[in-house]
């Protein structure tokens, strides 16, 4: 039997997400995964963040800093955190790759972003497909939180289900810019240590931040192995002690003979 065919056959029999998780993602276009990071991991990431925030200019309480994955081993581990890898395989396929990563920090009163995204038919990486029990996505965002976002705090927001809408252009501009509240726009609640995965085919944005504490979100964005959104690929020389699995995940996009991101024996262990 073809080794690749054998791998695919075994992958199809594995359950990486529960039936309810698949239902939620297919329904809403995103899912919150609770307690991905331990309290110790959150503390370690926050300690490093306290040192790194000076790398970016403050824009009225908003900071965007590229490549937190280069901030040492704790952030490098987030590339293929073992609690997250199963979701990436389920949503992007066994040859998924990381496309780019950055961090967002916001203090009270900061504003940034409007509702955007959606599968509009011409952005080749913003798509969601389902067929025969299998979900597949284009550019997909994994966000780790090291600070909570309670109801009304702001930050990540979206319109659930819009990854499948046929009326993308009908969303009013005043709703997109958060100038008018609409019942269909939601801000998911998360705790420090949670992660949220969403497809870029989902209409999403950043609500103004209203909480007294700083928003801390680390966005690691992934693509199918054959595609790329970013024009800049990862330079492995910027990292120390990368595992072979991380090297595969960070590889540039390709089609022919691309290695599977995660070895089958790792998944079956």
Structure explained in plain terms:
The chain has 269 residues and is α+β, with helices and mostly antiparallel strands. It has one domain (3-268): q2cbj1_9rhob like domain (Jelly Rolls, Sandwich). It is 23% helix and 20% strand. It has helices at residues 3-13, 19-28, 39-52, 73-76, 85-92, 173-176, 244-249, 264-268; strands at residues 30-33, 62-66, 97-106, 128-131, 134-137, 140-145, 155-158, 195-199, 204-207, 215-223. The strands form three sheets. The protein has a six-stranded antiparallel sheet. It has a two-stranded antiparallel sheet with strand order 4-5. Strand 4 (128-131) and strand 5 (134-137) form a beta hairpin. The longest helix is centred in the N-terminal third of the chain and has 14 residues, at 39-52. It is globular, with a radius of gyration of 18 Å. The mean pLDDT is 92.
* Number of strand segments: 10
The number of distinct structural domains comes to 1
- Low-confidence stretches are none
Just name the CATH architecture. Answer: Sandwich
Radius of gyration, whole Å = 18 Å
Strand content: 15-25%
Average pLDDT number = 92
For the termini, the CA-CA separation is 22 Å
Total helical segments: 8
Q: What shape does the CA trace take?
A: globular
């Amino acid at each position: 039997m073809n080794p690749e065919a054998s791998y695919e056959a075994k992958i199809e029999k594995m359950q990486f997400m529960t039936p309810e998780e698949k239902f939620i993602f297919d329904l809403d276009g995103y899912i919150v995964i609770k307690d991905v990071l331990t309290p110790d991991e959150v503390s370690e990431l926050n300690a490093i963040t306290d040192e790194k925030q000076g790398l970016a200019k403050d824009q009225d309480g908003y900071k965007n800093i590229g490549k937190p994955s280069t901030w040492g081993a704790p952030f490098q581990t987030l590339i293929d955190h073992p609690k997250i890898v199963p979701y990436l395989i389920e949503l992007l396929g066994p040859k998924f790759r990381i496309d780019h990563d950055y961090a967002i920090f916001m203090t009270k009163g900061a504003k940034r972003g409007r509702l955007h995204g959606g599968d509009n038919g011409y952005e080749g990486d913003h798509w969601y497909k389902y067929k025969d029990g299998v979900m597949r996505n284009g550019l997909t965002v994994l966000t780790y939180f090291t600070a909570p976002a309670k109801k009304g705090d702001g930050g990540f927001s979206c319109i659930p289900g819009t990854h499948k809408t046929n009326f993308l252009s009908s969303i009013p501009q005043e709703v997109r810019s958060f100038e008018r509240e609409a019942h269909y726009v939601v801000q998911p609640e998360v705790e420090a240590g949670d992660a949220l995965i969403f497809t870029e085919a989902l209409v999403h944005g950043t609500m103004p931040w209203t909480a007294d504490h700083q928003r801390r979100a680390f966005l690691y964005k992934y693509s199918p192995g054959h595609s790329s959104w970013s024009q800049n690929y990862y330079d492995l020389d910027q990292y120390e002690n990368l595992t072979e699995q991380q090297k595969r995940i960070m590889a540039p996009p390709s089609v022919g003979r691309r290695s599977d991101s995660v070895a089958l024996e790792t998944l079956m262990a």
